[in-house]
Each structure stands twice: as structure tokens, then as C-alpha cells.
Amino acid sequence: MSDTSETSVAVGPSADGALRGQLKRLRQGDKGLLPILLGLIVLVIYFQIRNSVFLSSGNLTNLFVQATIFILLAMAEIWLLLLGEIDLSVGFVSALGATTAVILLDNQFHWPWFAALPLAILVTTTIGTLQGFIIIKLRLPSFIVTLAGLLGWEGVLIFFVDRQGTGGTIPVQEKVLYDLVNANLSPLWTWIFVLACLAVLIYLIVRRDQSRRTSGLDSVPHFVTIAKAVSLIVAGLVLVMIFNRNRGTFIVLEGMPYAIPVDIAMLAAGSFILTRTRVGRYIYAIGGNSEAARRAGVNVNRYRLLAFVFTGFTAGVAGLIYASRLGGISDNVDPNLVLLAVASAVIGGTSLFGGRGKMIHAVIGGLVIATIYNGMALISMSAATQYIATALVLLVAVAMDAVARRGSSPSR
Amino acid sequence: MTTTPESTSSFTPPNGVSVSGDSGVAPSTLLSLRGITKSFGAVEALKHVDLDIPAGQVTALIGDNGAGKSTLIKAIAGIYAPTSGDIFWEGRKVTLHTPRDAENLGIATVYQDLALCDNLDIVQNMYLGHEESRHFTLDEIKMELNTKRVLSELSVSTVQSVRQLVGSLSGGQRQAIAVARAVMHESKLVIMDEPTAALGVSQTAQVLDLIKRLASRGIAVLVISHNLVDVFEVADRIAVMYLGTLVSSGPAANYDTSSAVEIITTGGSRSDVAASAK
Asked: Is A290's pLDDT higher than 80?
């Protein structure tokens, strides 16, 4: 970076400055969602050409539900990836939480759902906290501690599932947990939910731009705000069209699966904490330069531990969705879940090196992974091809991450 | 010296230019160190250091590698507690156990390796650890406005946008942000460790300008530097350390490059210094 590239603008409001700031951020590796969204569209077009069922309402709804588990586990990972940490145990921890719920809800214990589901989340939150505590207090690498967790919690899971004596699988027999993935909002409520979400989002965007403008700060031109709002509305309407079309063959099957609002709630809560609160600010700061955060007076270990707590909590929610989707929990949980979760986060744009990432990355990345799995199954590709294709997508995402990271500090 | 601690009279500076021998101007002393000693086991990194840092002036701390400069500023910044000796802040005896203690008094340290987060923007870095919030959420507007105000007060005009990531800034700009951060928190003493190391010519000039502006705002600045050209450019006062001892201190006008080099390298015997410093 040479001195000649520095110009003396920017003290004073200018749309130009704001746009230039955005461009600069783009170049620094905050590549935004555009490239990955384009990639997703290419995938969608490819699968649609190969099999016209792909874009049917039934398949897309299925795809969204498939994506939910990747999305939630990726959100769990993002809390730690932002710190430059990782949790390899998240798949089994979430399954263990789900097991807790399923066992407590079954015919033997008869717990009500409003006690069993929170307890399941409490279990995973406690496990997350415990692992975080060990990592922080003993100054161990999270990679190793959660690798131990990966093995250990699978053992605990097998122990509890097999103890039920139901042949290695405990079915979900309780309605609320079952309905989480397998039942839908009515078309009317789908409309209400989507419109409410749009209203809140657009209100927040407009209010933010407005207050920046009235304070005399750099703000984006009006047309950018309007374009954002319009594209959000279009996306919302497309979602309603997908979910509200009757996708049943013999019975009427329509509306948004309950799992989708769960995703959106977790996305909203996570994004709020990360962007609007001190907690989020410090998580980014620690991930970027933990020594700088410490010198600025941030209690680094407190916020690191908090991230582990959030990871555990999110894993608990993911586990409930997982059990609901499978209709039960077995002692044979897919060990690839955690890798796909990390892959989703990184494909979405979150860095493995810490300090860079957003909750929305989990959604985009989870959709990409689900699209690959769903589409490949539709065009009857072999499992071998599916694995290899996912691996290639992950490799490309990680390579982009590393390149972006190198580009992010030109002054060093 | 209105706020001179009572103990001053019992001490005379070990060597060299006497404090009381300052040319007429006696600015109010902000920070006084008396008999500061710091041992790491058997090693005495600081030996009985006495130093006065006046407000509104730039004090340069010079010395060879291992002379104890960094240990001394760490004692002032609350990172190392001195083994013995007293620290007086505005005439009042204080103890600094943690960096927070120093910060609460108004002592800000701008570190050599620049304690900034590359992944955060300028506003976020300026407010790190001191965020303004409203209704439980961060008040970005207020923070951004204040950041702009402080940067323009310090005439830091080379950044394009205060929402730019710090990772994209040049070394001089980063240094400026780190300094502006100290100013924004209304620090009274800003300690800078090698502020111009690794900077280009024009960026060095910008940072030196910034240091002078800090002093003209009434802030005391303590600069560690190896670069004597820079030191003579900005310093009002000079203090020289040699093997853990403060061997000489006084107004910058009493020194020139050759006398400073001599004291740095040899520790300068009393007569040599007196002779060369005049």
C-alpha cells in the first residue's frame, strides 16, 4: 500500500465513500454472498436440466428440510470458527441431546415436550460449556479436546440408545418433536410468517439507513436500499410459492415446515448477537487478534467460553431437528455430520482462521451442501461421486478462504 | 513544579543533567518515578530509576537494546509491578497492578506490534473494550461520529472511510488509529513504543506530526525510539537508559546526536556527559 493511493476524502457524508468502503471490503476477502449465490444457481440449473423434478415444490421443500440440519450445525460451528477454534464433537453432542429428549418423551417417562426439549438443549449446552472450560482452563487445542469429545460422546450415545433395548434405534413417539420437521404451518400462517419477517427486516434496513443519513454519516444511495428491499420481497414471495403449493399426491400437503421458522429464529438471534452486541464484537475481536482484545480490556476467556456455550445451545436445537427428521435416534449417527457442518460454514464464506464470518453463511453453505446431496440423489449419482463432489466444493471454499486471508493484510 | 512529590528533594538524579537544572520552563509534572527497581530473579532489569514526565511535552526514552526501556514502560503501563520504588501520578502516590489500573488513571500505551484487530473496522477498533451502547445494542452512529470527530481533530485525513477494515490501512495510518484511540479515551499520558519503526519516510513524518499535536493538546507523550533523527525532531525532553539505569535526562536542547550516542553506548561518565551535553 503506497502513500499515493491515499486520498483525503471521507470527512463528511458521501455516498461515494460508502460505496468505496464496500469495494475495499470486497477486495479484502469479505467477498460477500454473491459468488456463492451464483454457484448455487449454477448447481440448481444443472440439476434441473438433468432432472426436472428438482425444482418441484415437493423436492425443494424436502431440500430445505434436508438443509436445516446442516444449517443449524454450521451455525453451531460458526461461533467457534469466528474465534479460530473448531468443535469436532458437535454432531454427536447434538445427537446426544436429541437422545435425551427422545428417551424422556417416550412411553416410559412421559415427560411433556416443554420440559423434555429444553432439557435436551440444556444437556448439549452443558457439554459445550464443559468442553470449552477444559479447552480454556487447561489451554488445550479445541481440535484435540473435541476430537476426544467426538469419540467419548459417541460412546455415551451408544450406551444410552442400546440401554433402551429397542434394537439400536429409539423412535420418536411424541407429536411435538415429530411435527418439528414433519408438519407444516397452514398456508395462511406461512404468508403471515413470511410477511412479518419481511416487514421486520425491511424496517431494520430502512431505519438504519435513515439514522445514518440524519446523522450525516456516509450512507448508501436510496436505490441500493430499495434494491435490497425489493430482492428480499421477491425472495420471500418465492419461498411462499414453493411452500404453499400442494405437494401431496393423495392428500393435501402444503405450507412451510416448522423447521424453517426454527432456522430463521436461530439465524436472527445469532446475527443479532454477533452484529449488535458487545459479545459479538468481542468474539470477532478475539478471533482477529486476541492479544489486541486482551490489551483493550476484554476478558478474553469469558467470551471464548460464551462461544462454546452458544455452540452447545445451537447443537441442541440441531439435534432435535435431526431426531425429528429421522423419526428417531439410532446408535449409528452419521460421523460425517460435523465435517459437513464445517464445510457448510466455510462454503458460505466463514473463515477457518477466525475473525471472519456471519450466521447467514451457515444458511447459504447448508443450502449448497443440501443441493449437492439432493440433486445427486435425484440424478442417481453414486455415493462415491457424491462424496468426491462435496470434497471438491469444500476444497474450493477453503482455498478461497486462504486466498482471501492472504489478501486481507496488505500492510504486513 | 507545583505538584512535585515531597520525596523529590531527597533524590538527585543519578547522573548527568539534573532535573532541577532545567532551563527556566518548569511544566507541571504528570508522572514521577522514584527509585523504580525491577528484578527478574537475580537479574536487575531496572536499577533505581527516577524520571519525571511533564504534561504537554514529548519525552523521548532512548537507549541500546536491553537497556531497560521496555521494562520501564511496562512498569508504567501496569504490566510489570516494580520490585521497589514509588510512582506518583499528579503528585499522588499510586500503585499499578494491571493495565486497567494504568488505563483508569489515563495512561494509554500504543504498542510496537500495534494492538489493533485487522478484521474490525476503524470505528470498532477505536472503541474496542469501551463500546457505547443504547437499549442493550451497540450505538454505532454515536461511535462513528465520535471517531470522525477525533480523527479530524488530530488531522488524520488520509483514511477513506472510518468503516474501512484496519487490515487495509498502511502502517502510518494504523499508528494514527492507535494514537487516536488513546486520545479518544481522554488519556493524559500516551506511551509509544517505537512508533516510527517500519514506517516509510512520509508516514514517519505524519506520525511525528501527530505526536507533536498530542503534546500541544496538553497530553504527555513518552516515546521510545532507536531513531535519533526522529527523537530530535519531536522530543522536548530526553532520557537515556544504560544497562537498567537512567543515566541522563534533561531538555532535548541539552543534547546533540553525538552526545546522545555516546551516552547510549557508554553510559557516559558524569564529566563526559556534562561536557558534551552543554
From this structure: yes
Q: Chain B contacts of A30, Cβ < 8 Å?
A: 165
* pLDDT value at B17 more than 70: no
For residues A263 and A140, membership in a common domain is answered with: yes
Task: Please indicate, yes or no, whether residues A342 and A360 belong to a single structural domain of this protein.
Answer: yes
Considering the domain architecture, whether residues A152 and A218 belong to the same structural domain is answered as: no
Q: What is the mean pLDDT of chain B?
A: 81
pLDDT bin (cut points 50, 70, 90) of residue A288 is very high
Q: Taking CB atoms and an 8 Å limit, are A217 and B136 in contact across chains?
A: no
pTM: 0.84
Using CA atoms, how far residue B163 sits from A60, A217, A284, B148, B149, in Å, is 39, 11, 15, 10, 14
Strands (E), chain B: 29-40, 43-54, 58-63, 84-89, 92-94, 107-110, 133-134, 137-138, 189-193, 220-224, 237-242, 245-251
Contact A24 B202 (CB under 8 A): no
Return the percentage of chain A with pLDDT > 70, whole number: 91
* Least Cα separation, residue B70 to chain A (angstroms): 16
The answer for residues whose C-beta is within 8 angstroms of residue A117's C-beta and 6 or more apart is A101, A176, A177, A320
Instruction: For residues B87 and B32, give the distance between their C-alpha atoms in angstroms, rounded to a whole number.
Output: 6
CA dist list (Å): B153 to A193, B146, B149 = 49, 10, 6
Which domains, and CATH codes, for chain B?
Answer: 27-114+188-277 (3.40.50.300)
A124 near A316, Cβ under 8 Å? Answer: yes
Q: How confident is the model at residue B6 (pLDDT cuts 50, 70, 90)?
A: very low
Q: Please tell me whether the interface predicted TM-score (ipTM) of this complex is above 0.90.
A: no
- The average pLDDT across A406-410 equals 55
Considering only the beta carbons, identify the residue of A9, A297, A298 that sits closest to B103.
Answer: A297
Strand partners, B133: B138
Domain assignment of residue A280, given as a range: 34-183+257-403
Q: Which of residues 200-259 of B touch A (CB under 8 A)?
A: 200, 202-203
- Cα B207 to its chain centre, rounded Å, is 13
Q: How far is CA B99 from the centre of its chain?
A: 14
For the segment A164-190, the average pLDDT, to the nearest whole number, is 89
